[in-house]
Amino acid sequence: MTPQRSAMRLAALLALAVAFPDPNSRGDEPPAEAPLSWRAEYGAALEEARAANRLLWVQFTGSWCPNCRRMEQDSFSNPAVVARTRSEFVAVKLHADANEELAMGFNLTGLPASVIVDPSLNVLAVHQGYLGPDDLDGLLGRAAASRAPRHNPEDLADAPRLALELVGPPAPEVLRTMAVSKPLKKEEHAALSGYCPVSLVSDKRLIPGQAEYAVSHEGRIYRFANLVTFNLFRRDPERYVPANDGLCPVEKLENGRNASGDPRFGALYKGRLYLCASKDDRVRFLQEPDRFATVGVEEGGNCPHCLAQGGQAVPGDPRFSLTQGGRRYWFPDEDHRSAFMSLAPSSTIRR
Fold first, then answer.
1. Per-residue pLDDT reduced to its tens digit, 181-226
2. pLDDT tens-place string over residues 324-350
3. Any idea where the domains of the chain sit in the sequence?
4. Sequential DSSP letters for 174-191
5. What are the start-end ranges of the E strands in 107-155?
6. Residue 339 near residue 331, CB atoms below 8 Å
7. By the 8 A CB rule, do 276 and 267 touch?
8. Which of 55-64, 161-170, 204-213 tops mean pLDDT?
9. CB 230 within 8 A of CB 213
10. Of 123, 159, 184, 200, which is the most buried if we count CB atoms within 10 A?
11. How far apart are CA 85 and CA 54, in angstroms?
């Protein structure tokens, strides 16, 4: 058979295949369920879940994890899982090695890991290890059933409101005001009036802490909204505790008195939380944050290591601080802080 005739016969067979489809196929079958629509960025997925008032499904995976691949093949394409996810969840898939801090915040030790949280980051379900289609659907279903009743946005219309200000170079930026989930309530034995410091710094919201998630740090009791915020604080408490021991820096500098700061009048500056005693004090803080932020910090906030080694006044960063002998110091980076710590008795240092 010549090449020309072979080509003509192949074209004819292809035409027949199109004209006469497979007799074993059923034309009335519904189209296959589309696969899950995975988000790839945790922060954006959380905001989407909050906006839609849905649960957030965080799936931790790894390219080297065989059971992660099994779940890809067996479970994520299951029609029941896909349908439930579409109606109740926002799903985000994260590589654990690139999101190690977040994974540790959920206290994870193995892969694959499936974590379900509500929009307020309350953990509803955690499973580490392989889940087949039915087991995964069951995990999602139980998490959805255990969720607290959804609130009408009008329910919070009369609630107290938190207006936390964020300032930092080059220009101050005012954050949007967010509703407080519960009325303010004084708790005598907990710092920040019992509110979660991690939620205040990370989410700019006053979320009441839970008694079962509490830790003592530098003589103060802090309470946390859930296990995630509890673990994040334990890993890096300096990031979340109020600067100046929670005292109002404006009252200290301008009036010479120690006045307790109020979490309703907080300001975030260079990653640190400052509590002012009143709305007027916060306005003053925002006008000159560099002046007030260094209240209670030795050397005017300059790096003590740079001063000692070269006599240079190098501004420190509150994210790299430590307390030695009851005195607070700032450093421009981790290297300078480590160098200073190597010269000081370890028993006198607190980060």
1. 333 344 447 899 999 999 888 888 888 888 878 888 888 899 998 8
2. 777 888 898 989 888 888 876 544 444
3. 42-146, 161-296, 297-351
4. EPPPEE-SS-----TTSG
5. 113-117, 123-128
6. no
7. yes
8. 55-64
9. yes
10. 200
11. 10
Q: What strands lie across the sheet with 165-167, from one edge to the other?
A: 173-174, 165-167, 266-269, 272-275
Query: Given this model, what pLDDT does residue 325 score?
Result: 72
* Each residue's pLDDT tens digit, 277-315: 999 999 999 999 988 988 888 888 899 989 988 888 898
User: What would the two tokens of residue 344 be?
Assistant: 């000081």
Residues in the chain, total: 351
State the greatest distance between any 2 C-alpha atoms of the chain, in Å, as a whole number. 104
pTM of the model: 0.52
Coil vs helix vs strand at 283: helix
* In the predicted structure, residue 11 carries a pLDDT above the cut 50: no
* Closest CA relative to residue 81, chosen from 124, 30, 35, 22: 35
Fold adopted by 42-146: Glutaredoxin (3.40.30)
Phi, psi (deg, nearest 5) at residue 312: -100, 140
Number of Cβ within a 10 Å radius of residue 151: 10
With left for phi above 0 and alpha for psi between -120 and 50, is residue 53 left, alpha or beta? left
Tell me how far apart the alpha carbons of residues 297 and 150 are, in angstroms, rounded to a whole number. 45
CB burial string 44-62: b at 16+ within 10 A, e below: ebbebbbeeebbbbbbbbb
Q: SS3 for 212?
A: strand
Which bin fits 34, alpha (ψ -120 to 50), beta or left (φ > 0)?
beta
Cα-based distances in Å from 24 to 17, 27, 104: 13, 10, 51
Alpha-carbon span 223 to 208, nearest angstrom: 8
